[in-house]
């Protein structure tokens, strides 16, 4: 990675750290982009260049490129649902290990702030499209193949529900277990 890319990653991380500190100290609604910029020692326009909205700052986890690479590395003949289970569970585990405080704060914000919940849905839609593109390539299908899109939309929809359940129940249950349960439900064909 070149100097410019490393500098961008450092700036992005500084903005996120500043936002998490401020939101933790004074609450989500009262924290402004200007305050985040000041705390990160950048301009408000720099914050908005890296993150389109305040919701994106607290939700952005930078795991999509890692998930894409991990999905591409899965065995070619593996069932798509199993590949997605391994990749998404790995991303959840990595996030819990690398950012425990931020993950807990995200859960609280998901439970409390409707704008963050709405942005989560939009973000997971983008993740679904990314995963669908990779699965379609692996299967030799068109990028907009409906079956592939339905598969990834079902998985990211299940992940959304897992995250919301976890958040609204106080983030006390094991998130990895909940994620695995969601995949088991999907695999069973929605039998209850």
Automatic annotation (TrEMBL):
Keyword Transcription: yes
SUPFAM superfamilies: Homeodomain-like
Keyword line: DNA-binding, Transcription, Transcription regulation
One family name in Pfam for this protein: TetR_N
InterPro entries: Homeodomain-like_sf, HTH-type_TetR-like_transc_reg, HTH_TetR, MftR_C
The UniProt record lists the keyword Coiled coil: no
Protein name: TetR family transcriptional regulator
Organism of provenance: Streptomyces coeruleoprunus
């Amino acid at each position: 990675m070149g100097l410019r890319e490393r500098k961008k990653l450092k700036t992005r991380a500084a903005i996120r750290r500043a936002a998490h500190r401020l939101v933790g100290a004074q609450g989500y609604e009262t924290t402004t982009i200007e305050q985040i910029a000041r705390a990160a020692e950048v301009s408000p326009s720099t914050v908005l260049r890296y993150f389109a909205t305040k919701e994106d700052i607290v939700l952005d986890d930078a795991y999509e490129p890692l998930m894409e690479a991990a999905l591409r590395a899965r065995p070619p003949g593996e069932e798509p649902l199993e590949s997605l289970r391994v990749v998404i569970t790995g991303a959840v585990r990595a996030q819990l290990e690398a950012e425990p405080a931020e993950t807990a704060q995200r859960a609280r914000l998901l439970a409390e702030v409707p704008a963050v919940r709405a942005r989560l849905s939009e973000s997971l839609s983008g993740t679904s499209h990314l995963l669908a593109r990779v699965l379609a390539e692996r299967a030799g299908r068109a990028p907009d193949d409906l079956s592939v899109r339905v598969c990834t939309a079902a998985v990211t929809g299940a992940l959304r529900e897992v995250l919301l359940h976890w958040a609204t129940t106080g983030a006390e249950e094991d998130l990895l277990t909940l994620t695995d349960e969601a995949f088991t439900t999907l695999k069973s064909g929605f039998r209850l």
